[in-house]
Q: What sequence folds into this?
């Protein structure tokens, strides 16, 4: 089966053509028939008989081999080289380390390194909290994965996970000026992962767990939260949950309902599904029915799956049984974090008036928006080519910016709820409509509003360790010259 890696890309095909054997029109037709479109043409070398072309072709990555194969089989065409612009962007990796200071002379060297640096080391030894002001710890996040659940690709290992973690680090820096470094571990042993992260934690101000398979991710996160004094956040769980809730706040407002009164059917009780369920309960929802492969989860059922057992115990107050198609009758909201094609249009027709559907499986949702056009009132997916994209990028940059700035020891449920409300509030009453319930990933107000909401919630929860920066009581490290508090 071809794994859909999402979106289109540009490939550059260098080919030599013989004008007596083939016309350029035939090449254009062949590329189009194979699913590509020529975006640009450059002639590298021209001769009376043969011409060397560089063709930039826009295509779905799944069909690029088909285009190249079609060209190779044409008489009068020789494919010289093929390069993928996405792969070219990754040459040498996407991130690098830069020094904040330039060493210009021996005096500079003696201050940033030996012997002067010894004074800094002893200052931290005497007061470990000064590591936050005198090292990179105050603005550095570890993005940690074991490569077991990478995107929709599954267990592809730590090396193959690196490009994804590098991309995450880029987003941290560009959107929130948070320094982040990818740590991809060559182990899938829970004990080894926990111990490794604990041992590297002194260098970081927070831990972002990423693409670690369920159910191991639950124990890993729980134990790290218990053992470390810095925030630990599994973004696949909680980032998804925060942005989902933000979208639902605006969706129910739009249709004139209250979240507390809604019947919610959630399909896919894994890492993200469990976190979504928990944050919905915290937000006041009470009638949530979790559905997985065996159907509706009901209290009293035995399950060896930790997530299923928890969901059965804490949801489905009316003990509804049966398949997804059975329990969706009269539902106000459907949430999908499962797989493609799970939801049918006839199921959506069974829902209550003004149904809300969040089909978030990627890259192919539980139901395509065009299948329920005119039936659904509000539709959201995880895709960027449809309105209302539910994307973790709306959450994690601002959330970590906030926890770093107030030096929170952990991320509480109240901080997640505050982040969701902040994201939802970016969409004004005038802007709110069926195709705009969640702000754009590039809306510059999102990070700052999430940051401020998280900081406020951290102080309220008494997990912020920096003097209250909201009241302007904290002097910056530059102003004090001694590292502040």
A:
């Amino acid at each position: 089966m071809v794994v859909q890696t999402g979106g289109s890309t540009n490939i550059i095909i260098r080919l030599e053509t013989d004008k007596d054997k083939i016309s350029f029109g035939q090449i254009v037709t062949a590329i189009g028939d194979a699913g590509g479109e020529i975006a640009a043409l450059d002639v590298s070398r021209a001769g009376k008989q043969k011409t060397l072309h560089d063709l930039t072709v826009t295509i779905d990555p799944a069909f690029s081999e088909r285009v190249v194969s079609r060209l190779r089989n044409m008489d009068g065409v020789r494919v010289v080289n093929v390069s993928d612009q996405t792969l070219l962007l990754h040459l040498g990796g996407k991130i690098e380390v830069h020094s904040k200071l330039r060493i210009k002379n021996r005096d500079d060297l003696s201050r940033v390194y030996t012997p002067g640096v010894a004074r800094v080391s002893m200052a931290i030894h005497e007061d470990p909290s000064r590591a936050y002001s005198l090292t990179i710890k105050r603005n550095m996040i570890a993005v940690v994965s074991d490569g077991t659940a990478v995107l929709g690709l599954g267990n592809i290992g730590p090396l193959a996970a690196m490009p994804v973690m590098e991309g995450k680090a880029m987003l941290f820096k560009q959107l929130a000026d948070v320094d982040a470094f990818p740590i991809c571990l060559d182990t899938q042993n829970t004990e080894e992962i926990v111990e490794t992260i604990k041992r590297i934690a002194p260098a970081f101000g927070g831990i972002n767990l990423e693409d670690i398979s369920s159910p191991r991710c639950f124990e890993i996160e729980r134990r790290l939260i218990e053992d470390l004094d810095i925030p630990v956040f599994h973004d696949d769980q909680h980032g998804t949950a925060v942005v989902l809730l933000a979208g639902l706040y605006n969706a129910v407002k739009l249709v004139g309902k209250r979240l507390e009164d809604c019947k919610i059917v959630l399909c896919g009780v894994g890492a993200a599904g469990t976190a979504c369920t928990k944050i919905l309960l915290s937000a006041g929802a009470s009638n949530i029915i979790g559905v997985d492969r065996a159907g509706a989860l009901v209290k009293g059922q035995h399950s060896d799956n930790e997530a299923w057992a928890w969901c059965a115990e804490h949801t489905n107050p009316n003990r509804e049984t049966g398949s997804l198609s059975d329990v969706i009758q009269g539902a106000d909201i459907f949430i999908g974090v499962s797989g493609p094609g799970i939801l049918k249009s006839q199921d959506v027709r069974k829902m209550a008036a003004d149904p809300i559907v969040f089909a978030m499986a990627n890259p192919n949702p539980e139901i395509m928006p065009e299948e329920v056009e005119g039936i659904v009132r509000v539709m959201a997916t995880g895709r960027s080519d449809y309105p209302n994209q539910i994307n973790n990028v709306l959450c994690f940059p601002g959330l970590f910016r906030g926890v770093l700035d107030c030096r929170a020891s952990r991320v509480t449920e109240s901080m997640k709820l505050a982040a969701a409300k902040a994201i939802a509030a970016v969409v004004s009453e005038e802007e709110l409509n069926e195709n705009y319930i969640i702000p754009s990933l590039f809306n510059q107000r999102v990070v700052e509003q999430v940051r401020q909401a998280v900081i406020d919630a951290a102080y309220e929860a008494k997990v912020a360790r920096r003097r209250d920066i909201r009241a302007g009581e904290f002097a910056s490290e530059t102003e004090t010259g001694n590292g502040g508090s």
